[in-house]
Design a protein that fits this description.
The chain is of the alpha+beta class. It folds into two domains: 3-50 and 154-207, no CATH class; 53-151, no CATH class. Helices cover 29% and strands 19% of the residues. The protein contains five helices and eleven strands, in the order ααβαββββββββααββ. It has helices at residues 3-15, 26-43, 57-60, 169-182, 188-207; strands at residues 54-56, 73-75, 80-83, 86-90, 96-101, 117-123, 127-133, 144-146, 148-151, 216-217, 233-234. The strands form four sheets. It has a three-stranded antiparallel beta sheet. A three-stranded antiparallel beta sheet has the order 2-7-6, with no helix packed on it. A hairpin with a 3-residue loop joins strand 6 and strand 7. The protein starts with a helix and ends with a strand.
């Protein structure tokens, strides 16, 4: 759902008016700020990792995409937030040629010169780089770099920008709540409740696995003296 559709849904509920302002209108611009605040709330909710924010380096297409002989420092994707696992050097057909395990930057001082590892450094404002050790040899030159990472969500800048949120109406309700709060409107509480309920539902769906493989608490009752014999249940992390 793009910003124009979200703003239209928000405005029609806020003003009860089908004549929605254009992008040249101040209310449209204010709405951008309110919508991005809602995205920020979703991004940082309860320390959650949202499925929609996992991406691969090659699919994203920004940052350094290929290996250069002897080069150790490469640019991470522009929307990079954090990564774990491995940096993989792969052939055009996807065959694995080399894997660099990712470590924390503070662990680098404990590694020897011949150790194989990768680490990220940088910050959200200036961007991130990833560093490979040892320096890639000629046999890796020109091969693709790929890894799975957790990205920053897309913020709205223009009307056609699309959000990753599973339920974009969380943004609509959050925008309404923000406007009602600023105006000291008594409908603030109900709008906030609607937004928080949508947020909690997204978290529950995010944490519940898939319909073929739902997340379940491990049943260890049989290993506990006096425990029930075969009880298991589903729940949130």
């Amino acid at each position: 759902m793009n910003y124009d559709a979200i703003f239209s849904a928000y405005y029609q509920q806020y003003r009860a008016d089908s004549d929605v302002p254009t992008s040249a209108d101040d209310e449209y611009t204010v709405g951008l700020s309110l919508a991005n605040e809602a995205i920020n709330r979703w991004e940082n909710y309860d320390g959650n990792y949202w499925r929609e924010l996992f991406e691969t380096h090659q699919a994203n297409g920004t940052g350094t995409q290929t290996v250069t002989t002897g080069t150790t420092s490469y640019t991470a994707p522009t929307n990079f937030k954090e990564a774990g696992g491995f940096i993989k050097v792969v052939t055009a057909s996807g065959g694995l040629k080399k894997a660099y395990p990712i470590i924390n930057v503070e662990q680098v001082q404990s590694q020897n010169d011949s150790a194989v590892y990768c680490y990220f450094k940088g910050n959200p404002k200036d961007g991130y780089t990833f560093n490979l050790n040892p320096a890639p040899t000629a046999e890796l030159n020109g091969l693709d770099i790929d890894f799975t990472y957790y990205k920053k969500p897309t913020l709205f800048t223009i009307g056609t920008d699309v959000t990753e949120l599973a339920d974009p109406y969380f943004i609509v309700h959050r925008m309404l709540a923000s406007q009602f709060r600023a105006a000291r409107n008594p409908y603030y509480s109900s709008a906030k409740a609607d937004s928080e309920n949508a947020l909690k539902q997204m978290k529950m769906d995010n944490d519940s696995g898939t319909w073929t493989n739902p997340w379940a608490v491990a049943d260890r009752s049989g290993s506990v003296f006096g425990g029930a014999s075969s009880i298991s249940f589903y729940g949130n992390r």
